[in-house]
């Protein structure tokens, strides 16, 4: 496993844009999306689906409470690189959630959404959360970027609800769209908002991106410069929609996943990516080459040392170290020990980075995109 991981690191980093600086970017997905925010409803959710739940997202992931954010931002504020920059996190943000009450009143016939800032106000532990977001942006502890309008495939979800899927309806009653996938009866995971089978719902998908980016600007007061598609799945014909709305770079892993419906093959098509531009007229690619996901690994796995090896390999190839780390790692609202344990590990990682590379520089994703664009021009 170690040998395979080492080879994989080299294959990720051997080609693409290079820079003779030690840059670290921390990209974190799923901020803003609802999952199951209320502790009481989540306990009922676990009771309903306990025998099928293996996915850590269903066990600990939810909206970040004020306590969750205080804990994370207090940690980040303690450390700076040699330029005075904190190890700020790119908050890849889902800007809206389903309005469950309105959808229920329509008999599942129509979809309604609400900004994630409105969702936060519905729950007592989260009512001050967005104030902490704004303070963290001002203090350069995090920087939001666009991750989607919502994190659910609306056309498929509504069709399954209308078809009477009992598991989805049960989850819906708990303000949750996400029961264990094996119970849904769909090849496509519901959180993959832009996936599809058969004919592409192109008009809907274009609206998803345009409305989402407009809402992002309305919420934050500036446009998003980068984007990361939900579950890394997007059809290439949607990229011009993003660029028309000021997106300059696409975050993601070393493979771009295409929707099932974009190919006649039974298997999903993957397109290789590398950091930089693959065509003169293309978006900049930001390729994640480091992993820090302690909520998704076994207790015996050393996430800190593994991520440090990822960073070392990136720097060996003169690449920025772009770390993927999802929101669920830092959420303690449903399971306190999850956040407490992983915040300690994040602090260990930050200390080791600063200790091993005193000349390291922390960037957010939009800042890295600017740096690459300036260098390529």
Descriptive key words:
alpha/beta; single chain; 3-stranded parallel sheet; 6-stranded parallel sheet; 14% strand; TIM Barrel; 13 strands; 14 helices; 377 residues
Element layout with pairings:
Blueprint: H1 2-13, E1 23-31, H2 39-49, H3 56-60, H4 66-77, E2 89-94, E3 96-98, H5 100-105, E4 113-115, H6 116-120, H7 129-138, E5 142-148, H8 154-162, H9 166-173, H10 202-220, E6 226-227, H11 239-244, E7 249-252, E8 255-257, E9 270-272, E10 284-287, E11 290-291, H12 303-316, E12 321-324, H13 336-356, E13 361-363, H14 365-376
Tell me what the structure shows.
Strands 1, 2, 5, 11, 12 and 13 form a six-stranded parallel beta sheet that branches. This protein has a three-stranded parallel beta sheet with strand order 6-7-10, covered by helices on one side. Strands 3-4 form a two-stranded antiparallel ribbon. The chain has a single domain (2-376), classed as TIM Barrel (Alpha-Beta Barrel). The model has no long low-confidence stretch (mean pLDDT 95). β11, α12 and β12 (321-324) form a beta-alpha-beta unit. The chain contains 14 helices and 13 strands. It is an alpha/beta fold and 377 residues long. The termini are far apart.
How many beta-strand runs?
A: 13
As residue ranges, the low-confidence spans are none
Q: Radius of gyration from the CA trace? A: 20 Å
CATH architecture: Alpha-Beta Barrel
Give the CATH topology: TIM Barrel
What's this entry about, in short?
The protein is α/β, with parallel strands linked by helices and 377 residues long. It contains 14 helices and 13 strands.
